[in-house]
Specification:
- The protein has 377 residues and is an alpha+beta fold.
- 36% of the residues lie in helices and 24% in strands.
- The strands form four sheets. It has a five-stranded antiparallel β-sheet. It has a four-stranded mixed β-sheet with strand order 3-2-1-7, with helices on both faces. Strands 8-11-9-10 form a four-stranded antiparallel β-sheet.
- The chain starts with a strand and ends in a 7-residue tail after the last helix.
């Protein structure tokens, strides 16, 4: 099978994508032919040299970067399909399955997924709607709440409200009155805790909002929960699963727990500080609570029409024991310390077998879509 990996991207999580993609490349079954395309921070695509894969597999210290050779610039051809959708350096690039190992904006938010749909290429992960909906934390909350899934209380504020001082002030006052300090402030559509911070008073809230609005035009103000952070991996296709194709069936793995050693599980704790957090798999939960989390993770996955894979994140309130669904990550981290592959591995699904499952599910979803009628003629 010809596997094409996309990495880098126009995102605050560009550097994390490089690490995730290197780990994916090293763990793909050797029988597959792997092609790498990097995306720089301006969004330009470049075909990478063939020997890069071999170097990654031979040297565990080898790191990915973006080799921006203009002669290797990639063009995407709508309708080209697996044989002729991608073109670089005078030839077409064959791709049976594309894995966009891209985190955050312009990668996890439905934009790349839409491009791959137009190109006629099978790809790993959620479709356009699920990717876009889960990337927007407020839209995720609205959809989950409509399905009766508990979420953390919140107030949303957007750029238009900021531009009207009276509306802005009243919205901030509403958040303080209804939610109370401490509060968490997050950009609605950023990942890896980019732009996120905790506010314990009005002054800190003002600075937190300024930081969040530098990342996004919509910002989420959430009640701070005295919480344990619990995560669950899910694979399968919530829309077209079939008992005849086991890779499409919904499966939940874990749950695991993240125990931050920072104030909260911020970017530094996730990626820069090797002692920033302790990962516990399985999480120390009763069987009843563990089963509830796994079933709720699959339910949320289905509510959002997810497919391929997602990491579903929960909070358990230490004071009340109540479980809240925090967010859904449709292209979770695939680094050597990432929770998604570790939770799968804890239940016997190795990294290599996980990737094969994702490739087969992507092909099954693509084939199912090809049977649909798109024209009257």
């Amino acid at each position: 099978m010809n596997i094409l990996l996309l990495y880098g991207g126009r995102s605050g999580e560009h550097e994390i994508s490089l690490v995730s993609c290197a780990a994916v490349a090293r763990n793909i079954e050797a029988s597959h032919k792997v092609t790498l395309i990097s995306i720089d921070k301006d969004g330009k695509w470049y075909l990478q040299k063939e020997d890069l894969i071999e170097n990654l597999r031979k040297n565990q210290d080898e790191k990915l970067s973006v080799n921006a050779d203009e002669k290797m610039t990639v063009s995407v051809i709508p309708g080209g399909g697996r044989e002729k959708a991608l073109f670089a350096n005078g030839h077409y690039i064959k791709a049976d399955v594309v894995f966009p190992v891209l985190h955050g904006t312009y990668g996890e938010d439905g934009t790349v997924q839409g491009l791959l749909e137009l190109a006629g290429l099978p790809y790993v992960g959620c479709g356009v709607f699920a990717s876009a909906a889960t990337m927007d934390k407020v839209q995720t909350k609205i959809l989950l709440q409509s399905a009766g899934i508990p979420i953390v209380p919140y107030v949303c504020i957007n750029r238009a409200q900021v531009n009207n001082s009276k509306v802005y002030d009243s919205t901030v006052e509403k958040a303080i009155k209804e939610l109370g300090f401490p509060l968490f402030v997050k950009p609605c559509s950023a990942g890896s805790s980019d732009g996120a911070s905790r506010a314990d008073n009005a002054k800190q809230l003002s600075f937190a909002l300024m930081e969040a609005f530098s990342w996004d035009n919509k910002v989420l103000i959430e009640k701070a929960i005295n919480a344990r952070e619990i995560e669950c991996s899910v694979t399968g296709n919530s829309v077209t699963f079939s008992s005849d194709i086991k890779e499409t069936l919904l499966e939940a793995y874990g749950p695991g727990e993240i125990v931050p050693r920072h104030t909260f599980y911020d970017y530094d704790a996730k990626y820069n500080d090797p002692d920033g957090a302790e990962l516990r798999i399985p999480a120390d939960l009763s069987k009843e609570k563990s089963d509830y989390i796994k079933e709720t993770a699959k339910k949320a996955y289905a509510v959002l029409d997810c497919s391929g894979l997602s990491r579903v994140d929960f909070f358990e309130d230490r004071d009340t024991g109540k479980i809240y669904l925090n967010e859904i990550n449709t292209i979770p981290g695939f680094t050597s310390i990432s929770m998604f592959p570790k939770m799968c591995q804890s239940q016997g699904l190795s990294f290599t077998n996980l990737l094969d499952l994702l490739f087969k599910e992507a092909l099954a979803r693509f084939e199912a879509k090809q049977t649909l009628t798109t024209s009257r003629s």
